[in-house]
Amino acid sequence: MNIGGLHHITAVTANARANVAFYTQVLGLRLVKKTVNQDDVSAYHLFYGDAVGSAGTEITFFDWAQAGPNVPGAGTIVCSQLRVVDAAALYWWQQRFREQGVRQNAVEDYAGVQRLVFWDPEGQALALVSAASTAPYEPWANSPVPVAHAVRGLHSIVIRVHDSAPSVGLLEGVLGMRALPAVERSAEAGVEITVMASTDGPAVYVEANANFPVGRVGAGGVHHAAFRTVDAAEQVRWRERLLSQRVGVSEQIDRFYFQSIYFREPNRILYEIATDGPGFATDEDPAHLGERLALPPFLEAQRAQIEAGLKPL
């Protein structure tokens, strides 16, 4: 049993309104679900993706207005890497970011791929990676970005650790990923990168250096990353496998749009395994995804109270 690629990446924002503007109007993603954090209903949980929120295209945000700033470093996810179809798209985005005033680096070679690193308004590091894929993708008709250059989904995450062996050991020995050759980054001497690939291709880039400062998740940082599994039955088998390897893991949690289990890897980075379905059209017409506050049935009775506590977007 081998894990699939990324299902979604969840980050933290302290400014939901600016977050929506950037991810929809600049990156051209669709806001496919406007709901709340089920563990903290005072906070929005915003989901962006392709036209239908296909598993593997979603980047999501908890809106925690009081969150302190993110500190990238060891023990955190330091970059969310998004997929575009080819290198030409990278250079198209380079020009778009110039026009939009988005902070960016030059297109670079990184561990065997070409990428363009940029930062959102709260300083979260993201990258566009040139990588062809057959993963499901539904273009959003109202996107300001032409389909030829559109973000097609999630490519991978970059994590930073002091020692790569425990992190690589879990990804390989428990989740069934395979390690591709490690390389050295010329820009950062002494940083070893191990590329961990799932059945869908590269999924986790493990950057290791004993001198990395310790990170802390905050606004402009990534809270957790979720990997794909087909259904709840397979998810049960993953949970049993994690427990058999003495990895602490949550019970199955029904998030209504998918089911989840959570665990921390040895360097304390939070991972999730999420089911592909049932999906975001469960409670909304696909033509109107993300237009109203969507609440799962177990929160519907609290709608008036929840809406009163949320800021308009």
In terms of topology, how is this protein built?
Layout: E1 6-13, H1 16-26, E2 30-37, E3 40-49, E4 58-63, E5 76-84, H2 87-100, E6 108-110, E7 113-119, E8 125-130, E9 153-161, H3 164-173, E10 178-184, E11 192-198, E12 201-208, E13 222-229, H4 232-244, E14 253-254, E15 259-264, E16 270-275, H5 297-300, H6 303-308
Parallel strand pairs: 1-4, 5-8, 9-12, 13-16
Antiparallel strand pairs: 1-13, 2-3, 3-4, 5-9, 6-7, 7-8, 10-11, 11-12, 14-15, 15-16
Characterization of this structure:
By secondary structure, the protein is an alpha+beta fold. It has one domain (6-308): 2,3-Dihydroxybiphenyl 1,2-Dioxygenase, domain 1 (Roll). It contains 6 helices and 16 strands. The strands form 2 sheets. An 8-stranded mixed β-sheet has the order 2-3-4-1-13-16-15-14. Strands 6-7-8-5-9-12-11-10 form an 8-stranded mixed β-sheet, covered by helices on one side.
